[in-house]
Amino acid sequence: MLGALRQLNPSLKSLRAGNFKKGLDFGHNPQEKILGIFGMGRIGRAIKKHVEPFGIQTRYHNCSPISPEQAAGAEYVSSGKLLSKSDIISINIPLTANTKGLIGTKEIAQMKEGVVLVNTARGAIIDEAAMADALNSGRIASVDVYENEPVVNEKLVKNERALLVSYLGTHTVETLAKMESWAMENARRVVLGEKLLSTVPEQVNSQ
Asked: Which PROSITE patterns does the entry link to (predicted)?
């Protein structure tokens, strides 16, 4: 999010080309920007907590409002208002039959010119082709996550404003070790009939 606002990717390319900041577009400060969180669950609430020190204002949209304690001052708005009034949009909803392609050409057209779009959910929630076209036209400033990983849309690869990374959030020695320990402990608890450390909500609801 911060990298997209501050033109991180183009600046790195410019630096490596020996141009330093020559020809580089100006970035934006995070202060007083409006962050629209699409899906105010555990991840959405964590994002809100982390961006607050930067002076970012948060709004959110869910299927239904969460409690005032969980919202912690974030305003609940309609999906239309979130799309049209946000400077930054963070997608944090599960991929289901109902959410696949949820953000397409129609929704992107409602967004502000130059909006920063960050998808921490599954790539297929956003119509990747529509997103790539919007990035090339300048309507969207920066994006990540891919619909058909490891294949990445060629238009995204060629656009230097697309801040693209392979999934690095868990790609550390420490995190992978914790994930292995967590999985083994869950397996032990299943065998012994004990309460799990974590469950998959979709599986629990289907039982």
From this structure: D_2_HYDROXYACID_DH_1, D_2_HYDROXYACID_DH_2, D_2_HYDROXYACID_DH_3
Q: Which two tokens stand for residue 113?
A: 């010119």
> What tens digit of pLDDT does each residue of 27-46 get?
899 999 999 999 999 999 99
Beta-strand (E) ranges in the chain? Answer: 34-38, 57-61, 75-76, 88-91, 115-119, 140-142
Query: Is the CB of residue 69 less than 8 Å from the CB of residue 95?
Result: no
d(CA 61, CA 74) in angstroms, rounded, equals 10
CATH of 2-158, one of 3.40.190.10, 3.40.50.720, 3.60.15.10, 3.40.50.150: 3.40.50.720
pLDDT tens column, 65-92: 999 999 999 999 999 999 999 999 999 9
Asked whether 105 and 126 are in contact (CB, 8 A), the reply is no
Burial of 124 (0-12, 13-18, 19+ CB in 10 A): middle
Beta-carbon contacts of residue 16 (< 8 Å; ≥ 6 apart): none
Secondary-structure breakdown of the chain: helix, strand, coil percentages, each rounded to the nearest 5: 40, 15, 45
Domain boundaries, the chain: 2-158, 173-206
Q: For 1-5, 26-30, 87-91, 139-143, which range has the lowest pLDDT when averaged over its residues?
A: 139-143
Tell me the HSE value of 88 on the side-chain side, using a 13 A CA sphere.
27
